[in-house]
Design a protein that fits this description.
Length: 200
């Protein structure tokens, strides 16, 4: 898996200090500054402690089977803002580099909120997942003509933990960022159907 995060701290310097602090019990393989600078923090062959408790496609040990990329951003607590162009381009380049070394299915390129819907919001609604998919990183569904008849079943088939209270919001944050209300309305269900069709 390739898991994207935001740092959720007031500065990139503070985030880097925390990620390099062995006593903090948190780490990531990479940190990307807003100016596009990339810090390589943990060897890809080693476990980094970036995901915490989570679930994706039947797996709960996310840290043991994923590469984590942190993007410097204050997050929702400290003034969440769009990711600057240099940072996004660096993310595209880094993700392509990682995917060139590892066989990672498109639906295993995910956000922290996808694996932990009830705990996390990152990388949030400003992450341009469609742009990443167009660059060959992850997936972006075509909206189906007909809505999903069983959205939770289809989300479970895709990989989500549908026992999570905020699973619909997590899906919307990734695939319908213009409306994150947690309701499986017809538009949301058409996107879910399109996503499910892509793995049929």
């Amino acid at each position: 898996m390739l898991v994207l995060h935001y740092t959720g701290m007031e500065s990139a310097a503070a985030a880097l200090t925390r990620l390099c602090d062995t006593g903090a019990q948190v780490s990531a393989h990479y940190l990307i500054d807003e100016d596009g600078g990339i810090h390589r923090l943990v060897d890809e062959a080693k476990r980094a402690w970036h995901a915490g408790l989570g679930y994706w496609r039947g797996a709960r040990d996310i840290n043991g089977r994923s590469i984590g990329i942190e993007l410097a951003n204050p997050g929702h607590e400290f003034g969440y803002r769009p990711f600057p162009e240099p940072q996004m381009q660096a993310l595209v380049d880094l993700c392509r580099d990682v995917l060139g070394r590892h066989t990672i299915p498109a639906r295993n390129v995910i956000g922290h909120s996808d694996v932990a819907p009830d705990r996390k919001l990152d990388p949030g609604e400003f992450m341009d997942w469609q742009r990443l998919a167009e660059a060959g990183i992850g997936t972006w569904p075509d909206e189906a003509d007909d809505p999903s008849e069983d959205p939770l079943k289809d989300l479970a088939a895709y990989g989500y933990d549908v026992s999570a209270r905020h699973v619909i919001s997590a899906f919307q944050r990734h695939f319908r960022p213009a409306c994150i209300d947690g309701h499986a309305d017809p538009h949301t269900c058409r996107i879910i159907a399109g996503l499910r069709a892509g793995i049929a």
